[in-house]
Amino acid sequence: MSIQTDKLPQIIVAEYAVHKLKDQFKFKLGFRPSRSKDDLEEILRKCEAALMILKYSYLSLKDLHEHKDVILIQKMAQELREAINPALQTPSTHKLSYAILNWGVQLLEGFQNRLQKEGFEIGVGIDIKAVRIRNVQKIGEFVKARVSDSQGEYTVMTNLTTIKPNLKLAVSFLPPTEVAGEISEAMFLGLEERIEPVGSFLNPKEFDLKDINAILFKLIKKK
How many CB atoms lie within 10 A of CB 164? Predict the structure, then answer.
């Protein structure tokens, strides 16, 4: 059954990710990507074009998942990853820009997988995963938590002061932002300990996405 793909959150958020990537590549990031500026612009242009085709295709989720332009986006995301990976391994003062680059590429890398999720809440367009808390540090009114999804580590700034190391919780990977002078790359979705393996993708239907929706709507509206 065809759906309103022009309102599909996975596509809307992916468009926003491409927009953020284009913005970051305009800045002096303190590193030289392994691809030229023209190459990077062409990769993002192909992503934009593919997303536009998908947005107005009005296909079913199953047909979208197997569409050639979804496969193209996966390929373009892989090329972007290869271009920025060396920089992400190097200490830098451009921490927010690097975090946004990483988020944008991860968002595109997971695009096909995310198309398996049903729903039209904008929060369905981002990844929700089970992570393990590695360590915590009090910073003013916030707690800085370092978490792992088994593939990488991320910083989460939170006002949940009762969190502690080794807890396994759900986080949503929102666009990175600065909180209390630190880069926050995700948001905890409550204090319920998860039984799924670390790194598992979680079903958005299990969560109240109200706060996530509000944050994403605000960001996308400003695009």
Answer: 11
H or E element that contains 139:
strand 128-139
Q: Which domain holds residue 184?
A: 124-221
pTM for the whole structure:
0.93
Tens-digit pLDDT profile for residues 82-115? 988 877 676 666 788 889 999 999 999 999 999 9
How large a percentage of the chain has pLDDT more than 70?
95
CA-based radius of gyration for the chain: 17
- Point out the domain boundary residue: 116, 146, 164: 116
Residues 128, 170 contacting (CB under 8 angstroms): yes
The reply to whether 134 and 49 lie within a common domain is no
Per the CB < 8 A criterion, the answer to whether 104 and 45 are in contact is no
pLDDT tens profile 186-195: 999 999 999 9
Judge if 68 and 94 occupy the same domain: yes
Count the neighbouring beta carbons within 10 Å of the beta carbon of residue 211: 14
Per the structure block, which two tokens stand in for 65? 């998942």
